[in-house]
Amino acid sequence: MRCTFLFLAALVALTTASQRSYDGYQVMTIKTDDSQKLDMLFQWQEQGIDFWDNLNSIGRPMRVMIPPNLQTDFPAFLRDNEISHELIIPNVEPVLEQERKDQIESRARAMVNRRFAPRATADFSYYWQPSEINAYLRNLATEYPNLVTVEVAGESFEGREILVARISNSNFDGTKPKIFIDAGVHAREWIAPMSALNLIHELVEHSADNADFLACDWIIIPTVNPDGYQYTHDSDRFWRKTRSVNQGSKCRGVDGNRNYGYFWGQGAGISTNPCSDVFLGREPHSEKEIQAVVNEMAKDASGIRLYLSFHSYGDWLLFPWGYDRILHDNHEQLNQVGELVAEAIRTAHGRQYTTGNSAILLYPAAGGSDDYAAGVHNINLSYTVELSGGGLGGFDLPASQIVTVTREIFTGLRAYAQYVATNF
Ligand SMILES: [Zn+2]
């Protein structure tokens, strides 16, 4: 036992050594009901204020992380403008240390359990690494060839395979409506890939229990941004973007969800500064990761009835348009289906998801995948799903809650699937 403890302590020290430190960083919740003040607040993003509720809104509290060098100026700005604020994490680093310890311990427990399990299957007690995700998908394809095929949708900037799982019990024969899901375009939103993996696990390994889902065919990319995701595990927990090199800049990466080619660069919530967390890239689809999604979507575009992109956090089911405060022609059905899904989750689990137009409800952001699916491929049901957060900051949802959050959205997915199967 002591030996295990020492081993774990050594592992924590080892993983901590290579991590970017957030010692002295603070997190505040801030709130304003004035849209002009919100616009002013967003200018601080360029200075290095990190908005954690990446879609924010008037009158709702939002969490921001403040680096040590802005801890005089930013609170002064808030006071001068009478924006209410409250310090919730005085120092981010100990929170991250706790998360790393938690992740190592839950993984170690999972490894021990696996030795006694009759057969290795999906274990949702810890956050998987990209290599584990791909190994699991390949394994499924070998074991369940009649149900799932796994293909390479593309390669990331750093050469990792971006896999797509295609799940059907009728071999994609064209008789069923298709549902397209991607997850993990934002690296630090760890619950997003896990939710996509839980869906794949349920559809393939528990297909008899979930026969209603298989009235649709599924195309799922569980980790769009494996480079960024790996980087959040190894180096910087709050990394959001891809890891591509921006020529002429010391800053790397593009916000994949500002990189899609529908009203790209024409609107709010974007930055042309490569150092910004919402850098839109030098051109639409500049990112290999986004090209992979776009290519995969194009293959089946005419048959896709529902598009979902998994993010975290906030318990939102958001629909287009995102680039500006304009309602989609199909907004009544988008809203109706969103309400139906939210109600299914609330009834079964008590969790309250809210549906609505992303730009009006929250804040505009151009170049997102939901706009692309709806605008370019006319997929009339298109949503960005902001899954549940947890922990102190939102992104640090403890591994022990992965099962809860993924089960809740799975209930929502059942409602989505039933609607699509009945109506298309
Ligand atoms: Zn996101």
UniProtKB/TrEMBL annotation:
Q: Identify which cofactors the protein needs according to its UniProt entry.
A: Zn(2+)
* Subcellular locations according to the entry: Secreted
- From which domain of life does this come? Eukaryota
UniProt-listed SUPFAM superfamilies: Protease propeptides/inhibitors (SSF54897), Zn-dependent exopeptidases (SSF53187)
What the entry lists under InterPro entries is as follows: CARBOXYPEPT_ZN_1 (IPR057246), M14A-like_propep (IPR036990), M14A_act_pep (IPR003146), Peptidase_M14 (IPR000834)
- What UniProt keywords apply to this chain's record, in alphabetical order? Carboxypeptidase, Disulfide bond, Hydrolase, Metal-binding, Metalloprotease, Protease, Secreted, Signal, Zinc
What biological processes does GO assign it? Answer: proteolysis
Q: Where is the active site?
A: E386
Write down the Pfam families for this protein, in alphabetical order.
Answer: Peptidase_M14 (PF00246), Propep_M14 (PF02244)
Any one Gene Ontology molecular-function term assigned to this protein's record: zinc ion binding
Where this protein primarily resides, as one coarse class? secreted
Coiled-coil intervals, chain numbering: none
* Cellular-component GO terms for this entry: extracellular space
Boundaries of every Peptidase M14 domain copy: 125-420
Role, per record:
Involved in the digestion of the blood meal.
Return the PANTHER family for the record.
Answer: FI02848P-RELATED, PROTEASE FAMILY M14 CARBOXYPEPTIDASE A,B
Similarity-based family: Belongs to the peptidase M14 family.
Tell me the protein's name. Answer: Peptidase M14 domain-containing protein
What is the species of this protein? Phlebotomus papatasi
